[in-house]
Amino acid sequence: MSAPMKPLKTWGHLAARRRKPSEYEIVSTKLLWHTRDSEQPWEVGHTGFMADFYRKYRNQSPITHEDWDGFRDPDELVYRTYNILQDGQETYVEGLLDQHNSEGHDKGLAPEWTAALVQLYTPSRYLLHTIQMASAYLVHMAPASTIANCAAFQAADSLRWLSNVAYRTAELGLAHPSIGFGERERELWEELPVWQGFRELMERQLTTFDWAEAFVALNVVAKPAFDEVVLRQLGLSARRHGDTLHSLLAEAALRDSERSRRWTSALVAHMSEVDANLPQLTEWVAKWQPLADTAIRAYGEEIPENAEAADNAIGAVKAFQRQLGLGS
Questions:
Q1: Mean pLDDT of the 235-247 span
Q2: What per-residue confidence (pLDDT) applies to 13?
Q3: CB contact set of 160 (below 8 Å; sequence gap of 6+)
Q4: How many whole angstroms separate alpha carbon 122 and alpha carbon 135?
Q5: pLDDT tens column, 13-36
Q6: Which of 102, 119, 124, 317 has the most neighbouring CB atoms within 10 Å?
Q7: Nearest alpha-carbon partner for 250 in 275, 269, 233, 271
Q8: Cα–Cα nearest to 105, from 180, 176, 160, 164
Q9: Tally of CB atoms within 10 A around 59
């Protein structure tokens, strides 16, 4: 008769670490059931559309790694801690809104600046929605749950700021009812030249199905472009026009962007552990960056009182890429 098996002290995939696993490790690692078999990602319908889709665009991606589950979020966020963090962020944002509303801040904005906000700010909720959708795609296609979780939090960040833009659109409309806030945002997004570079960039990104290229196009190129010109450079111009509320909201949004860049840097570093991946990653950056340059220039050159907005934004995006080892 064989001896009884000795019970494990923790989950099998965490036992090798020979220490008590953290909350992050317990609730974040090896959660994806459809990565168990690279040939049969779906346990039913092995020849169905979705099984073929995952095989082609995730399992057969040119970016490979023997241990995708070895990736770790540098912030080690879990759903519980993310909500605690963002509850604090929202408390701060609500405080800004309440304080500036009580002071009649919006009514004191100059006409030339409110005209700029109608074109350059309130339609940005459509751009934020594309970033949200693109992040959600990575949630579904990522080869490890630790990657999917980071993308999920990024999608939630985008939804949060999309909601804040919608809220500000309503507030600005109440303060300036004759300007057109909340009336033509979709039309402006679809037709105004200032947005067409970002529209093309994001529409092409949203139809890029290889999970790794979709990640590079979004997190290494498109999202940094948005961060640098729509958030940072427009926020700088807002301060110069006396719109301290907008500038402070932009700075708060950039704190989420900094967290996004941390996990992006960590994932690129994880990918770069395989020497053959680096040329492909670099090629993708070179493919997508011209679209981002066009988007930034079309937008940045319209930002008032900020003649260097486009150059500064493009320079910042390329500096980030160089930090990743992917820039020229």
A1: 97
A2: 52
A3: 86, 90, 256
A4: 21
A5: 554 555 578 899 998 888 887 777
A6: 317
A7: 233
A8: 176
A9: 17
